[in-house]
Amino acid sequence: MPAATLSRKNTRKNNRKSTRAKTATPARAAKASPASAPTVPAWHVAPDKTRAWKRLAALAKRGRAMDLRQAFAKDRSRGARFAVEALGIHLDYSKNLVDGDVVDALLALAKECGVAKHAKAMFAGEAINLTENRAVLHAALRAPKGSVMKVDGENVVPHVHAVLDRMAAFADAVRSGAWRGHTGKKITAVVNIGIGGSDLGPVMAYEALKDFTRRDIACRYVSNIDGEDFYEKTRDLDPETTLFVVSSKTFTTIETMTNAQTARAWTLAKLKNPAAVARHFVAVSTNAEEVAKFGIDTANMFGFWDWVGGRYSMDSAIGLSTMIAVGPAAFHELLAGFRDMDEHFRTAPAKKNLPYHLALVGIWNREFLGFDTVAVLPYCQYLHRFSAYLQQLDMESNGKRVQLDGAACRWQTAPVIWGEPGTNGQHAFYQMIHQGSSPVPCDFLAFAKPLHDVGTPATGMHHDILLANLFAQGEALAFGKTPAEVRAEGTPEWLVPHRTFPGNRPSNTLLCEKLSPRMLGRLIALYEHKVFVQGSIWRVNSFDQWGVELGKVLAKRIIPELSGAKAAKTGHDSSTDALIARYRAWRGR
Questions:
Q1: What DSSP assignment string belongs to 480-513?
Q2: H or E element, residue 70
Q3: How many Cβ atoms are within 10 Å of 39's Cβ, its own excluded?
Q4: Residues 6 or more apart whose Cβ sits within 8 Å of residue 569
Q5: Position 501 confidence tier, pLDDT thresholds 50, 70, 90
Q6: Is the dihedral of CA 40, 43, 47, 50 positive or negative?
Q7: Contact by Cβ (8 Å): 71, 440
Q8: Cα–Cα distance measured from residue 553 to residue 546, given in angstroms and rounded to the nearest whole number
Q9: What is the spatial distance between Cα 144 and Cα 196, in angstroms, rounded to a whole number?
């Protein structure tokens, strides 16, 4: 019997065994939202009712009037005093409009708002997602074997590692060529089909870790319902050598399943035999019935759990495409990085805690200085999808207008997150950051050691130039350029205002040692816990996303109104009715 065939049979046997064990796990069962409003813990107080909030409100006037030039001149140790370092990450927040009193008050705010108690409840597996009555335990996805993290009294860590082991066996089979397509050819392309958390995390990780990937297996990501996305991602692929990973917890998400059905038709247009689906499709889902109905062998279904939110799922089975790309060993290094930051967040004192400081400076800028956006600016081309990933993590988590008890927030919540890599952004939107009417706090990210040290001393070392630009941008934003300095250069008086930089524009710099799977895990978890701290203080549920539902419901109603043979009476508003009519007319319907 050929080795590849034997490998397939053993893999199928082991996968079925693991699937049965996993399916029987009680912790997987979804919980219904409680019929009555859940009780919010007494320690989860509204921030504006705390003494620290009132203290910060009083300090805000001083913060808005702060001059960073003077602050650095008066305190030569400011750059070291307002910095935290751990796990190879140096966070310099000294270029924010803060002083010692502000930092002390922010730390007091976190304490009064029960952030540490909330974190303890999360790590203990309590159902802190109150509106959905669910635990929030993405930290269990990277917990080491032998550890204990419970949901409803059951240790979920063994189930996590059972799935990770199945993922590793499958990834090795694809990478080695033991897993082959329907016609016996090796897989040379993996296409992940998902959306939201089933896409943003995996594609970001793939791009970030591209230097660690197998280049003979192309990884691509289809998420948009726009057919052009599927067309462009598959136009040069061969169905005989392409594997699709369909990532949908329910296996009913309209965008994902529409793309999956299109992928199925694309595959069978060449391979003809429906049995080919089982060799060219695997599922990341919990809905075995729908997976089987699609034609995927449920032995090749990789599950996850309701205590894993989509935007926190890239280190679960959702990361299967990532594991195929980088290999199981590197994927476990990624998980180890997440775990490093989990332990730091859980155990380090607030004064030395990276997520606390990153979060609290953000609270200060958002609530008390009135800044509406944050630009995340990685000076690393490998992180060119990092800002897009953080948009979902931050804005879907904390973009809420009501508190845990349903009362309206009396404070601002999530800022708008945006950004692009430097130095490209410097030639696009930095004009606005430096001289625009609305200051934009910035997070600059960089690595001291490049993966590829390109250039020569004679022509210029690329990484030195890159990092020089990063350090210069933070300095320019903080200190600006005064009218007197502009005049001293001989600038005509009429031109002075145009060449003046106001300065006092806040930024953080996160300087890391070197990009690796482990460092990427640390960075992602740093931002996860930053979002957690801010959501705790804002007293919102960072783990539901009801705001994405209404548009989906309306879209399902409109679809037949666009594609039907005859125009229907829709009952929409006059604008929507007119748009539907125009669309139908231009489509010849």
A1: -B-HHHHHHTT--GGGHHHH-B-----EEEEEEE
A2: helix 68-74
A3: 11
A4: none
A5: very high
A6: positive
A7: no
A8: 12
A9: 27
**Axis-axis angle for helices 157-176, 3-23 (nearest 10):** 160
Across the range 93-100, mean pLDDT stands at 98
Q: How many Å apart are CA 445 and CA 432, to the nearest integer?
A: 19
Model-level pTM?
Answer: 0.93
Give the per-residue SS3 of 394-415: HHHHHCCCECCCCCECCCCCCC
CA distance 198 to 321: 10
Q: How many helices, marked H, and strands, marked E, lie in the chain?
A: 24, 15
For residues 403 and 411, give the distance between their C-alpha atoms in angstroms, rounded to a whole number. Answer: 10
Choosing from 13, 185, 272, 552, the catalytic residue is 552
Pick from 440, 459, 562: nearest CA to 507? 440
* Cα–Cα nearest to 163, from 286, 339, 303: 303
Contact between 193 and 247 (Cβ < 8 Å): yes
The one catalytic residue in 74, 427, 498, 566 is 427
Candidates 255, 396, 528, 561; catalytic one: 396
CA dihedral in degrees (313, 315, 317, 318; nearest 10)?
50
**What pLDDT does 31 receive?**
59
DSSP letter string, 517-546: HHHHHHHHHHHHHHHHHHHHHHT--TT--G
Contact 88, 512 (CB under 8 A): yes
396 in active site: yes
State how far the Cα of 379 lies from the Cα of 512, in Å rounded to an integer. 11
* pLDDT, tens only, 320-359: 999 999 999 999 999 999 999 999 999 999 999 999 999 9
Q: Which amino acid is at 29?
A: A
Residue with the larger pLDDT of the pair 225 and 19: 225
Complete DSSP assignment for 338-393:
HHHHHHHHHHS-GGG-HHHHHHHHHHIIIIIS---EEEEEES-GGGTTHHHHHHII
Amino acid at 150: K
- Tell me if residue 117 is catalytic: no
Count the neighbouring beta carbons within 10 Å of the beta carbon of residue 465: 11
Q: Is 290 a catalytic residue?
A: no
